[in-house]
Design brief:
Length: about 230
């Protein structure tokens, strides 16, 4: 899989894309992640600006369509993208099922929003999908792009040493994960449930499923409506 990311602040993506599972996936050749500075496609040779004032009475600066168009067209001339994603607070919410679907793609392009937003013609004519990581506004789309990338890459076969671990994550079956414990079995008078120490795989799996359902009922009951 290849993920290209267009941003006005590429340095914000240095750390999240070069550590942990994402780093290992890149080293294994499972994922190629290329961050592009959008200013490279600016027509302003002196300041390399990619924003301008909004028409009308809106306040704040707006990402211009010209550099975005040139960047996307150049990248599309090199490969075919399954999705061209814009990170936006009013896009569809990033969910585990969506991450699962995106992990099956070959090439993905992510445009990071910034300033007040992007010229709406970009969203109308160049973008195939808009994704939000929550109902709040961030300074830019770099952190959402990193979140989307992490959610996708960790699902690639071989990215995680124990692939069953990813399959048991919260939201994979529209329910939350059950409680998990590790050594020591007793600490400060607090003990691990005895069922987990029994070695009985069938009973443990049944207990975990029951706990997952119960936690979902309490914390995220709306998820159960989709079952």
């Amino acid at each position: 899989m290849r993920i290209d990311i267009l941003t006005v602040l590429p340095e914000l993506l240095d750390s999240p894309l070069n550590h942990s599972i994402v780093k290992r996936a890149k080293e294994k050749g499972l994922a190629e992640i290329v961050v592009h500075n959008l200013r490279r496609w600016s027509s302003d040779m002196r300041h390399h600006s990619v924003d301008d004032y909004a028409f009308g009475f809106s306040s704040g600066m707006v990402m211009q369509i010209e550099p975005v168009f040139r960047a996307i067209e150049e990248l599309k001339s090199e490969r075919t993208y399954d999705e061209i994603i814009f990170t936006s607070p009013d896009g569809e919410h990033l969910t585990q099922p969506l991450a699962n679907r995106l992990s099956l793609c070959g090439n993905i392009l992510i445009l990071c929003g910034h300033y007040k937003g992007v010229d709406h013609r970009v969203r109308e004519h160049l973008i195939t999908r808009e994704i939000s990581v929550g109902d709040y506004v961030l300074t830019g789309g770099e952190l959402p792009a990193a979140i989307i990338t992490d959610a996708i890459v960790r699902l690639l076969p071989g990215a995680i040493g124990d692939e069953q671990s990813a399959l048991s994550d919260s939201f994979q079956d529209h329910i939350l994960a059950p409680p998990i414990y590790t050594r020591p079995a007793t600490f400060n008078g607090w003990s691990v449930p005895q069922i987990l120490l029994s070695g009985d795989e069938r009973r443990i799996m049944e207990w975990e499923h029951e706990q997952a359902i119960e936690r979902t009922k309490i914390l995220r009951p709306e998820l159960l409506k989709s079952l």
